[in-house]
Design goal:
Blueprint: H1 3-15, E1 20-25, E2 28-31, H2 35-41, E3 48-53, H3 57-70, E4 75-78
Length: 80
């Protein structure tokens, strides 16, 4: 599996939702709807935190958790 496929699918999935979806990798915050931001961030194999805020946050959290798991990316969805 290429990381490119994961990045495109993550971004496309995020774009289906109105909620703000932000990936935190160490001290960087990236808008998951930005393919460029994902390219520069998903290079390391570290763990990530996902922050979701908005009117469809619950659905967005489920969809994002599924797509990250599908590509074997270690993600923690933060419930706030």
């Amino acid at each position: 599996m290429s990381n490119n496929a994961a990045i495109v699918e993550i971004s496309q999935t995020a774009s289906q939702f109105r909620s703000s979806i932000v990936l935190q990798a160490e001290n960087k915050y990236i808008d998951v709807k930005s393919i460029l931001g994902l390219f520069t961030t998903l290079l390391g194999g570290q763990s990530y935190e996902l922050h979701v805020h908005g009117p469809d946050a619950e659905e967005a959290k489920k969809a994002m958790a599924n797509v990250f798991a599908k590509h074997n990316l270690n993600i923690t969805v933060i419930s706030e």
